[in-house]
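Task: fold both queries, return tokens.
Query 1:
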Amino acid sequence: MSPFPYRLVATDLDGTLLRSDESVSARTRDALAAVTAAGAAHIVVTGRAVPWTRHILDDLGYEGIAVCGQGAQVYHASEHRLLTSLTLDRQLAGLALSKIEAEVGPLALAASRDGLDGEVLMGPGYKAQEGPLPYVAYDDPAELWSAPLTKLYIQHPKLTDDELTRAARETVGGLVDVVMAGPGIVEILPLGLSKATGLSLAARRLGVKAAETIAFGDMPNDIPMFGWAAHGVAMGNAHAELRAVADEVTASNEEDGIAVVLERLLSA
């Protein structure tokens, strides 16, 4: 019998497993290695699509299944292939977008295309996050809808992320899902899609149940994952909405919050 009380450790990436420079600390790497040596599996569950996740998994030497794109993609890291992929209905997304803009005014847009090498498109006025993640700028609105998408990103010139998310949900909640995944990152997803749906699919492949899972996260898009897992741990830097539903709050991502919890559980 493993001394570790869970068979699956699910971790978000940004603001959780990753530090601000997109690195994973030696302490956290060692804690995850100890957990896997004790018989548990580690699974990454991220809002990033596969093209923005693959280099991190490769750096970690990660060979298992990862859940990407807010649950839309289940990716096999060692085989470099998609096991499942769910796309956003573009006609429905266009309708939702028009309804949101009728309510709050014009939005800046970006989109993530489907596939292992799906590009992230960014339109005029959209403020890209600082860092090395690649994207393609576009000017023609038709380009946004020319290929299958996993999700849309929306930004408003005046509303905060919380205000935009709330207004969008109230306006199109029955057509699509709207989540806040990070600072400046409000996303439109297929209705019913969440990290929980992707994680449940991946866990089934691994033969692991929700009752055997501990999850770590920092943003409201992690709420469904916390609802699915037996134990949800919010980072010290987590959004207030996630902290409110967490089973416990650990140290921040910069202070090895994941390792703090895993080391405690391993030594219990």
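Query 1 returned. Query 2:
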Amino acid sequence: MPEITSIDSVQQMLSDQGYVCDRALGTVVFLSLKLGRPLFLEGEAGVGKTEIAKALAASLGRRLIRLQCYEGLDASTAVYEWNFAAQMVAIRTAEATGEADRDALNAELFSDAFLIERPLLQAMQPDENGAPVLLIDELDRTDAPFEAFLLEALSDFQVTIPEMGTVKAPEPPIVILTSNRTREVHDALKRRCLYHWVDYPDFDREMEILAARAPEASAALSREVVAFVQRLRTEDLFKKPGVAETIDWAKCLLALDALTLSPEVIADTLGAVLKYQDDIAKLQGSEAKRLLDEARASLDA
């Protein structure tokens, strides 16, 4: 594990994994690691919140455990499940062989052999490489009861399995929570965390990101791509393109051997950068040329 001695070391550590991190984000990641506090990241989709957890796990040599949130997710699904099918087979086998001792069978059925560990329970288990990175992704998709459960789980870093007892993490996991802010997350949960808003990068940082993630792209093409996307984000769109779309678009242009942007190339590849038909329709005809001209003018300024 790299030694975490400063904010600069965190930035360098993430940079080694291809994640370009500004000073503000590097500071909050450093404090989260030093203080052992969960890190809550909010921002638009595609700005790199999930990638932080991936880069952090890779750089620290830790296991990444991801809990993908969705509407209806409850505590039991996030923590554990019993392998019901295997339990039924064990019951029928015991009955068929005449070994149906109720107490012994009950102890066997509710043992580790039949326990399916879900992300939160996995994160509480000891690991020879150190505590894992627990990514609780898109928390805003869940509801208030699940938030209340997380409040307790992240405070004590322990979960209870009624049939087996309490499982407490020998070493608290490194916790990163993300939200696209489709709804407000309760203040009580935010207070348990260090908070950072991950914004769209400025031109220079997006150029650095593109150089790290799509190094095959020429400097000239990268500059046009980033300038166009930055200009696109000022338009009234249903979903503005994130950094992920910038990278995807650059890779698509490389696959087409495009050396420079043109209205025709933009029209052919808009599906890589915009994900809603209404947004794509707005850029038909002369609109793409207008934005391209404005983007090039900004580069010449």
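Both queries returned. Flag for query 2: The mean pLDDT is 91.
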